[in-house]
Amino acid sequence: STTPLKVAVTGAAGQIGYSLLFRLASGALTGGRPIELRLLEITPALKALEGVVMELDDCAFPGLAGVQIGDDAETVFDGVNLALLVGARPRGPGMERSDLLEANGAIFTAQGKALNKVAADDVRIGVTGNPANTNALIAMSNAPDIPAERFSALTRLDHNRAISQLAAKTGAPVTDISRMTIWGNHSATQYPDLFHAQVAGKNAAEAVGDQDWLENTFIPTVAKRGAAIIEARGSSSAASAASATIDAARDWLYGSAEDDWVSMAVVSRGEYGVPEGIISSFPVTTKDGDWSIVEGLEIDDFSRSKIDATTAELVEEKEAVTGLGLI
Ligand code: NAX
């Protein structure tokens, strides 16, 4: 198609935005199809965002059909086909968990309502801003006219981290790793699953053959990678988060690879005993803008307890935001 895909990015003047916008504009998501960017920021960040737009101009990207910026969600989201909700309120000093949920609740209720009102009929919404699963739940609950299946939270960065760790351990190239799954919450309780993953077509847990590494090195390394990046870099993962945001959106819109699946946090209808109505990460295949959960995987006791622990955390977050009247 030569009609530009209209893509909204929130928090566009932030760290992730600084990497994401240039990759979007260069065609990493849409290939040859032109893209129009709609960038939302809070008022005090608009001047910095103008600077980023100057740099976008200076790249002279042939596929960038237009850029619009603003601080009003209804204006910025008007007619968008894809909304990447990256901007969120980070936890500040002395902030309680409920303060954090409340601050983000205010952002994601408003943005959910705005999308409900003005987005294109085919809109897809990907939430990167943390707490991503619960922010997606809040936006979804405030957009009653948009099908619930159009909302997803990002666990693709965790998925990609898990692929990279498994490749390093086995000496296989990342292209040999398939069927990786992140279950649950994008938090330290997430469960990266090697029992269904494959290395060159062979079961990954068997290929590794080291339950101690799987339990005590692999899982915590993937789950705590965000903290390790902060420790090393002095700020949180940004380029890798932008890259994963694009991977997730690209597969959602254009389809996942044959004989493979990806991890996406999507609304549960009770699959794998995950409580209905929470937004939890699952193995999914995607095609033509729709996802479907891979069903029928055998879940052993070890995986069961890990999935139960991470989904219990999501249920707790849901109860907290319900208590705050956000959903
Ligand atoms: P930054 O603090 O650099 O940027 C966030 C931007 O959002 C700021 O420019 C801020 O002005 C803007 N913003 C705040 N409220 C807004 C609103 N109501 N409307 C529009 N813009 C608003 O954070 P950055 O490093 O870019 O990270 C963004 C979010 O991604 C954070 O919540 C972060 O925790 C989360 N992450 C999620 C990851 C994931 O895998 N799901 C991984 C990376 C990252 O930690």
UniProtKB/TrEMBL annotation:
SUPFAM superfamilies: LDH C-terminal domain-like, NAD(P)-binding Rossmann-fold domains. Its EC number is 1.1.1.37. PROSITE patterns: MDH. Residues 155-321 form the Lactate/malate dehydrogenase C-terminal domain. Gene3D superfamilies: Lactate dehydrogenase/glycoside hydrolase, family 4, C-terminal, NAD(P)-binding Rossmann-like Domain. The active site is at H186. Catalyzes the reversible oxidation of malate to oxaloacetate. This is Malate dehydrogenase. It comes from Nocardioides bruguierae.
